[in-house]
């Protein structure tokens, strides 16, 4: 059985004060949704504070990005070993905002995936098509290409633990969610692609849905057989809403 993971991608939001309030709310509500695993992804500068506030709780944490390099002259970057210093469990790689706004290619993302694994931090690999790609009917080809770059570099083995997040770009931050049937279709496609390499591993891979997921639509999405949780942006900034999404997955 794959335990569901509900992950809050805070993006570039929050302040020391708002994060204290948010984490207090999440800590207080976590026990009631213990069937689901929770994790939060603050901006780098709050990582130490988040670690302090969540240590000893059941809530995990990680970052929204990492460098493909281990150390050196890479101004503004943060390396895998630094995430290890703050006991990150996860790191998001290849979010569509990184792909489109910061020009990260499939190959760069594959190397970031490898960099995370090298330091024992579990990568959450984001994939997903744009609206134009969906309308052209190439959703599966796009998602397959994005995953293949990682398979080519790292093989199928890491997917026993690594997480994939299917996030249709047209659903991110738009209020427009994929229907549960649309999401399930792509999730099943991803699992089948992994199964072609190793059926056992494919059964273990958690595949999250992301894109305007909220309490009101989470129940239907999380009931789908191949949807193993959610990567939540906007709705993860309020403890009540975030916990209500997790509740829907219990
Ligand atoms: P959203 O973002 O929930 O605000 O659509 C999801 C994501 O980008 O991970």
From TrEMBL:
Compartments where located: Cytoplasm
CDD domains: TIM (cd00311)
Enzyme class: isomerase
Catalytic site positions: 95 (electrophile), 167 (proton acceptor)
Catalyzed chemical reaction(s): D-glyceraldehyde 3-phosphate = dihydroxyacetone phosphate
Record keywords: Cytoplasm, Gluconeogenesis, Glycolysis, Isomerase
UniProt xrefs under Pfam families: TIM
Ligand binding (substrate): 9-11, 173, 212, 233-234
Enzyme Commission code: 5.3.1.1
Pathway: Carbohydrate biosynthesis; gluconeogenesis; Carbohydrate degradation; glycolysis; D-glyceraldehyde 3-phosphate from glycerone phosphate: step 1/1; Carbohydrate metabolism; erythritol degradation
GO biological process terms on file: gluconeogenesis; glyceraldehyde-3-phosphate biosynthetic process; glycerol catabolic process; glycolytic process
A single GO cellular-component term on record: cytosol
InterPro entries xref list: Aldolase_TIM, TIM_sf, TrioseP_Isoase_bac/euk, Triosephosphate_isomerase, Triosephosphate_isomerase_AS
A molecular function GO annotation: triose-phosphate isomerase activity
Keyword presence, Cytoplasm: yes
Presence of keyword Phosphoprotein: no
SUBUNIT field: Homodimer.
Function: Involved in the gluconeogenesis. Catalyzes stereospecifically the conversion of dihydroxyacetone phosphate (DHAP) to D-glyceraldehyde-3-phosphate (G3P).
Family, as annotated: Belongs to the triosephosphate isomerase family.
Protein name: Triosephosphate isomerase
Naturally occurring in which organism (per UniProt): Candidatus Competibacter denitrificans Run_A_D11
Gene: tpiA
